[in-house]
Amino acid sequence: MKTKNRKFIFISLFAILFIAAAAFDFAQGSLRNQNESRPAKRNAVTNSDSSASSGTKPAKGPVLIVYFSRAGENDSNSNIRIGNTHWIANFIADKTKGDKYEIVPAVPYPKSYQKTLDRAESEQQRGARPKIKNKLPDIRRYGTIFLGYPIWWSELPMVVRTFMDSVDLNGKTVIPFSTNGGSGWADSLPIIRHAYPRAHFLRGFEIEGDQASHARKQVDRWLDGIGY
Ligand SMILES: Cc1cc2nc3c(=O)[nH]c(=O)nc-3n(C[C@H](O)[C@H](O)[C@H](O)COP(=O)(O)O)c2cc1C
């Protein structure tokens, strides 16, 4: 074989190898992106990606359970007396013996599910901060804050954002918990992390709302797992 031909074959082989490697790298990258854009995997106990964010482990300190929850007509067409997230807050309080603080909106949300959907959608679109009726907690007394909310339009209810604007949880151990109609955490966790860049986050808990009232064991297992 002539030297010119050998050179040509060698260059062609090299080019094929190069293209194959680039294609493999591209495929890996798009797979990674796909996984990142997928909603958080749903599983009541191992379901959180709200893992620790700071290197030093702060003391647990006394526990406060902050939550917002709405009773009344809900998505399964039933009328509930105790909100789904409220149930989870109660289970956490029973096990940790922490204090509870309920975020109560100054203007209550309607009993009607549809009217609540409409109001919540408009509040979210406007970036509203609905007023809170009750006095805010004295956060200096606590080391660990559990923060609970239902998923509303894939995010946190705006009244919870009012709370987050008013109470600085940086430096605290923050543990989210949430109930939903099937969308898992949806887009809620990055919002909390962004609000408190210097908080120490621990693995949270989310569950579908219609399972919340009988989730005591799952809650206990989760709390055992994170040392509470
Ligand atoms: C205004 C509104 C918006 C909602 N948006 C969602 C949503 O985007 N994804 C979802 O899975 N569930 C959604 N749901 C269902 C609630 O998250 C679910 O019923 C939750 O358990 C209610 O909790 P609560 O009883 O503590 O208020 C929505 C409910 C309401 C009232």
UniProtKB/TrEMBL annotation:
Q: Which Pfam families match?
A: Flavodoxin_4
Keyword Iron attached: no
Q: Which InterPro entries match?
A: Flavodoxin/NO_synth, Flavoprotein-like_sf
Renumbered to this chain, the Polar residues biased-composition regions fall at 44-56
Q: Which residues form the signal peptide?
A: 1-27
Domain Flavodoxin-like positions:
83-224
Q: Which UniProt keywords apply?
A: Signal
**What is the name of the protein in this document?**
Flavodoxin-like domain-containing protein
Q: Give positions of region: Disordered.
A: 33-58
